[in-house]
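Box 3.1 A note on notation
Throughout this textbook, protein chains are presented in two layers. The first layer is the amino acid sequence; the second is a token string describing backbone geometry. Keep the layers aligned when reading.
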Amino acid sequence: MRHPLLVTLGLTAALGLSACEEIRGKNQVDRAMSAVNAVDENNLSDIMLTVADADEAVNYFKRAAADNPDRMDLQRGLAKSLVRAGRATEAVPVWRKVTKSTEATNDDRVDLADALIRTGQWDDADAALDAIPPTFESFKRYRLEAMVADSNKEWKKADSFYETAIGLTTRPASVLNNWGYSKLTRGDYSEAERLFGEAVRNDPALFTAKNNIVLARGAQRNYSLPVIPMDQVERAQLLHTLGLSAVKQGDVETAKGLLREAIDTHPQHFEAAVRSLRALES
């Protein structure tokens, strides 16, 4: 008589265990899928901030942030993508929102200062940088500090910040170029030329620094091209810059010769140099 009861109890226990296992398995699958989705979302965000089209990234983060307005990682992604798309004015209020949240980091405050500088709000950028503890050190922070000091004509501070920033990066070409331009605006042409040369040595493809070297040499009435890497088109463009520098110095005949050389050097028709030469000859 006991056998049917035992069988019934056994079946009930087996069914109960089966249901528990099914629930446990479902929970494990849900957790696994949540983890996969989080990884996929993070990967997609990284892609949007690096290799995706800038405007496409803005649209992605706008949609995601609208659906999840309290998620600061999405607000942060939106602000970064707006800056990357050249829309710093739109990025500023987003960065302000991020920096006012409890999740704000010092990197966020630096990025706010960067967006403010891009929109010409130098005083606000200065205030944003001042709000960061002095113990927080990063390449970007000191690069921006140097630029703000430059805008305030605080030359000693600017030099100190530029030097510190260079020590915090393995790719200092852009900072060296900025520092050189600072020296150029101060009238320290020889030091500017040296810094531009350092920039080119660190990044031989940085044409802005090459052009700035020529400006520094022209300001010293040195109209020979520097010994730096350049292709034929770059050579023609640098000769054109030298010619314009000679005009500025009042050395008109030298300028004409440099412009003619620029026209002859360029592998194609060099309209800008042709116009400059015609203007001088007329």
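Confidence is low (pLDDT under 50) at residues 5-9, 29-39. The two ends are 124 Å apart (CA to CA).
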